[in-house]
User: Fold these one by one.
Assistant:
Number 1:
Amino acid sequence: MTEITILCPTGHLGFTPLEKDSFLAGCELKPDFIIADSGSCDIGPYALGADGQASPAAWQRQDLEIMLLAARRLGVPMIVGSASDTGTDRGVAQYVALIQDIAAEHGLAPFRLAAINSEQSVDALRQRLLGGMPIRGLDGRKDADAATLARTDRIVAVMGAEPIAAALGAGAEVVIAGRASDCALFAAPLLNAGLSPATAYYAGKLMECASFCCEPFMGKESIFGRIREDDIRVTAMHPGQRCTPASLASHAMYERRDPFRETVVSGHVDMSDCRYEQLDEKTTRASGARFVPAVQPMAKLEGSGKVGERRLAVVGMRDPYMIANIDKAIAWARARLTERFGAPEQSGWQVFYHLYGRDGVMGPMDPTPAMQPHEIGVVVETLCGDGTRAEEICALAARNLFYARLPEVKGTAGAAALMSDEVLTGKPGYEWTLNHIMPVSDPSELFRTRFLAVDGAARRAA
Amino acid sequence: MMDRRNMATLRDMASTIRSKNAGVDHITFDIIFRERANFERVRDAHVLSPAIVAGLLRIPESRVTDFVVFEPANAIKFTILRERPSGSPGERDVFGSQQYAPLFDVEVP
């Protein structure tokens, strides 16, 4: 019976450095594949829109180096998806360059690398839209139209297993993929081995976040999967962790709306009847997934667009009268801003007062009755298309708390404490403009694969 | 008035209470029980429902998009629509990871 083994060291490569000991313990078990995802939408829309990265390059390099050296020593393929947090073309190129550098530094023998790009041009999607192709909104969003695309700076499509499986089939020993469904990275080699899509994608769903599917809670520790048809065994590699039915099942529902369904380009995994059983101290077996092929394959699109320049200021308050009347002080400050800069919506600016100590974390969702804190911290956030104007608005939004006119204030030398009379330049503001799906005739049609021969020995000699 | 001093709460009974982004437009909440008996007691007491969690978070019930009893994990799970997509200007919690505290004090008869 076919059995494939997979070692997964991290649920988000580079985001914080992976833990080497449990990874090396996993390598002792001689996995058939080493696989990790490097992306997330959780970091917000800035990295995609501005084509930046959320993780420090040194940590990305460290994780890739540990994985690559092990994979080449063991002679097994390594798969990394959603390169450099977002999976844009820049991210793929960055990871390919890192792999080449690491190979050269260590004089690694030649190997074949596949780079799979998933970025989509806004113009290409505009053409599809003009050609009558729908771009359907997910999660209650409206379908995209020309205006949606006009607000979008950068787009990635999310690949399923197909392009990765094809790259492996063509002999790739290292795959660097653009934006990909986390589970697809794992499904690709399992599908190539002849396992069903149900087993392949379900195994990927269980393993994608590494030690998050084990207990007690630890990040960045390795897990080891032994996968046969409808028989997925996940083992914790850290000496202090176990994979239990409870930990594995609770991971199956992590960060998703529907705990019974995992959707990819070519269909969805139905996890309604999945079963979990403890096999040994550190291992749980999962089974019972079904795969429902899509009548029409749909590729998910993620898009981000810039909404303006951001500035920040920090202000504190200690006077109990000011704290009790903070809403009035803010209303007064907003009124002065409107007098000077015009109404926010018409004049294209926004101010957010984040009131830490009152409801800075939950805002209007916070049900806790307002208590009188003994001090309050205010982060003033402003947004405007023009950076100079954003700075001016932010300075006035903060200083107007200092000058707030309330009838009974005793501290007439200043109604607030300015941490420093300083406006901080924040990253530009972006928003997720696309969380959509689009019909495709072939699950691989949006993705572009190229092969490179990487010869570390030759590069070092050169 | 009922004496509530000894009433158990979700904080006492659940082993995990968490919130987290589910995609860019939603935050999902998981209440997970280590003891099957605790899970069944909460499930059967109907102290959580779309209307109740909407009230707790002071949002219209229409923003509660999913509510699931997930037997394999001894868990109750619900999901809400975000005020705006994660990480937009004005964001308070980009990962959605600190929105669960109001669930702690839900009382379980």
Note: The first strand of chain A starts at residue 4 and ends at 8.
Number 2:
Amino acid sequence: MAQVLLKDLNKKYDEVHAVKDVNLHIRDKEFIVLVGPSGCGKSTTLRMVAGLEEITAGEIAIGDRVVNDLPPKDRDIAMVFQNYALYPHMTVYDNMAFGLKMRKFPKAEIQKRVQDAAEILGIQDLLKRKPRQLSGGQRQRVAVGRAIVRHPQVFLFDEPLSNLDAKLRVQMRVELKRLHDRLETTAIYVTHDQVEAMTLGDRVVVMKDGWIQQVGEPLELYTKPSNRFVAGFIGSPAMNFVDVGIQGSDSSLTAQGTGIRLAIPPVNASQLGPYKGQRVTLGIRPEDLHIAAGGDQAGYVFDAVVDVVEPLGSEILLDVKAGPNSLVARVEPTVRLKVHDGVRLAVNPDRLHFFDMTSEKAI
Amino acid sequence: MATAYLLLAPATVLLLGMLAYPLGWEVWISFTDFSPLNDHGPRFVGLENYRHLLADAEFWRAVVVTVGFAAATTLAKLALGVAFALLLARPFRGRTLVFLAIFLPWAYPASVSVIGWYWTLSPPIPTAYSPFMGTLKYTVDGALGGGAWAFLSVTLFNIWRGSSFIGVFLLAGINAVPPELFECALLESRSAWRRFWLVTVPLLRPFLALAVFLSLTTAFADLANVWLLTAGRVVFPVVGTQAYWLAIKGGQFGPASALSLMLVPFLLAVLALLFRAFDPPAEARA
Amino acid sequence: MVIERPWKRWVYFYIPLTLFVIGTLFPFYWMLITAIRPDAELYRSWRAVNNAPFWTLHPTLEHFRDLFEKTTFPHWLWNTFFIAVISTGISLFCGLLAGYALARLKFPMAGALGTSIFVTYLVPPTLLFIPLADIIRNFQLGNTPWALILTYPTFLIPFCTWLLMGYFKTIPKELEECARIDGATRFGAMVRIIFPIAVPGILSAGIFAFTLSWNEFIYALVFLSSPERKTVPVGVVSEMIRGDIYFWGQLMAGALLGSIPVALVYSFFVEYYVTGLTGSVKG
């Protein structure tokens, strides 16, 4: 049980600056997820915490100890790898017992801990098998089991679910969450899948190009993305972006794009005032678009043409064109529309996002 | 980092001691008149040994023979090896037997199978089919000079053994290429010949390069097999056998060192070619 | 597949192939026949009628018996075995450590060192035997097994390093990282996790190193002189050919006995060998 502190962390390879000035305070017992596209530095950060990569500059502390110069074995951590990294020449039992044996635990204690972990994960029957005799899901469990027998201060997960098929991934996701609730051990989890990040994390860290973009609770990231990248990365289907110009007087600002014109809701008016006469990026989530009905105010509707219809059962995704802009709207499954049909859409005025064109920061 | 050097130490020490040092010594000796038969130690003679060599008709003869030998055997081995590999890449009845027949010449120790060849091609004692082979041998020797038959048998032996190696090696290369690529090519062009040159050869390029390189170096440096098959009848000397005569039989280490060092430029030229083939320009890498 | 007429397939495919197979395998057959042919058939007058040139009606094991009773062949077997085992052991040890370092550890000049080891593999004995002869002479090791035990690693170490480096690269590095997190040192992870997993690779490197030294000819020819000190390949050639007299029967018997085991081993492990080589090509 420990907090983890990353201070001004940097990693440079010969030509690549992989991690840039990362500062992060991971609280005790917290489940934190690092998420971002490949090459964003999330895995490198995790590997530096593990001690598998040298730290170019900055400091990592686990508990009260600065661990910069400690070898991995002395950091009291456990890690689960994407390819499971089970030792192929050992049985499941020996795989799980390896770390304890290396630490010279008494035999009875090893036995007890492995049994307990096996029970938690439901793999008691597999203890005598070799890894190659296991299915992907079973291997995954063994890899997790090997991590938990050690009762480490911190769990590190490096994309542990990416090698599983979609169904198993959802199932293991739930189990990992349950496991964390039960063990209450600090965990750092790396993934490129934003759904995994949102469902698992107490807090989520979004990274890109080595920089931390935003740290926050899942819903906070979703409702208040701090910049355009986070807005586009979190949420599926992704947020729609439209280039617009801010026009009008202070009391009634409008966002004027090609083929689309919306009133600026009062909540945004004060921040957007200084942008009058300039161009900004307007962001609308697909679920904040719906087929216009009588109750919608005139300023918040626009006309579009249906391009593609994707019925998903519980909902329909409408790909529409408003002038040159392509947008996706998530609408009720009862809507009956065909390709090339005209459609009038309305936005949810409380949930519009605006981003500066140059800095890409939220306005 | 210290671990790395520690782990490399044993190999490096042995290789430096038994490889780098001897090579350096050889370079030095090639500038001296050193011979274990002399009373005095090595005396520096400058480029004398090399000057002698370059003026020596025997040396140029050996160079021509060596280069010709290397080129001829490599071409033949490559052609046969590619044919073997393509043949074995497809299933047919009796494939296992053919694989064995192709594989065995390479797997079998050369120093021993070479004797089998000598016995097969030039039986010196009248036996079995020797009248026929004897006639053949004397005809060839009569036409091309004494020892021609023996030399021809060296060439044949080298091809026999080497093409089997290249065949097995390229087969592994073909198996490493995803079959979709060949199937896709099948849809693109009807001509097997065009497919071979446009698809198979480029895909196998790194393997071909290494095969050519191994073949050329072994041919340039072939001493054991030439020695065994011609057994001192040095009518067609290669650089290797000449050096052996000079050094071991004649005790003239200086000239002999210069002689074997003359192989280095050839080896380096081939090595340079190989690295070009291994590191193709960026456009070809994808 | 295009359907062909059966006779066409025979004429253009199977018959040439059969001829080819017979041609390739003939020298082996010829060695075998010679080894079991009685002397009376081997040495005969030029014009005597030979009714069975390609086989024998009186097979005999006489040559094999002579080999063991009248020559130092058993000594050669033992010498070859002894030299091959020790030089393989040394080379395997060096190659294991060096191959691991080159495959796994990041350090300056790693690439250059790897390339230079690759290149040393290709330095031919033709270039080396002269200076090595002098070194052996200076250390007074001539005509002892140690002359060969020290020189064979010059080609065995690069070979083992090369092959094992390729093998280590196929082992996911996460295994080792996991072991290091689990409480092993770098060295501990290497010994307890990587080496056990690499056993097939180590085995094949060892076997091929063994056969390479078993078959070596030039160094053995140069460094050994007394008959009972020789190795099989040199002994067979130098001791059973006296001037112009070839003891053909014994020669072939010795050649067969001394190399059949090696040929078998090769055939058995060809997959490993080729995988090792191609692994190094794919880099």
Note: Residues 40-285 of chain B form a domain with the MetI-like fold fold (CATH 1.10.3720.10).
